[in-house]
Structure formats: structure tokens, C-alpha cells
Amino acid sequence: MNHKDATSSIKPEILPDLPVRKAERIARDSGKAEALATSAQERARKYRKALGDTWGHVQTFARMLRSYARRQYTKVPWKTIALVTAALLYFIMPFDALPDFLFGGFIDDAAILAAVFRQVRTELDAFLEWERTNVPVP
User: Fold this and answer.
1) What distance lies between CA 122 and its chain's CA centroid?
2) What are the domain boundaries of the chain?
3) Cα three-residue angle 123-79-62, rounded to 5 degrees
4) Residue pLDDT, tens place only, 27-71
């Protein structure tokens, strides 16, 4: 797996809001990556209604990260893993650009999740195809 710095190729409109460097450290540690995936899925279940359509993005990102951490699915660019991890990390942080406890506090989270989804859509489609033909990760 190539773990080169992903920040050099991330679109600048989402870079300032994403904790990419921290996400890269987490993605390199399988235990931390699995814990983040689990935390994100639990938080998404709790706030499913507030997340709307981006709820599914959290689920897919978490499954991809978990599969990557377990070395089950590694045919994915490091940039994609870094972005997915950063989006999940941003999502679980209650005090981000718009604190989650405020009315409408998940608007920024949904925007980040949607932006990352659009940027890594091709890789997510490949992961979903792989997932359909392999044993799913719980």
C-alpha cells in the first residue's frame, strides 16, 4: 500500500475543513481505523434522520475503511482512504465548523460527506462491486 501524503492531490475547496493529516495517521493504524469506522456508524445510526441521504455515505465509507484496515480490500488509492477517513473523522467531531448540537448542526457534516463522496465515487463504485462478490464486512 502506498501511503504517500494525500494532501497534495485533494481539491482545495474541501481541504481546509478536513483533518487530513490526522486521518492519514488513523488510516495507517488498523485498530484506530476500525474504531473510527465503528464510531462513525454508531453516530450515523443515532442521527440518521438529520443526515438524510448522506447516511448511506457514512455506511459505505465505514465499510470501506474497515475492509482496508483488515487488509481485505486494498485495491484503492491512498488518497481515497485518506479522504474517506478524514470525512468520517470530521463527522464524529461534535465541535466542527457548525457544532452538531446546534439546530442544523449536521449541515456541514452532510456537505463534507457529499463532497468526498463525489470526489471518490469511482473508487466507491469499485469497492461496492468488490463487496457484492466477496464476504461483506460487518
Assistant:
1) 15
2) 15-133
3) 60
4) 999 999 999 999 999 888 887 776 677 778 889 999 999 999 999
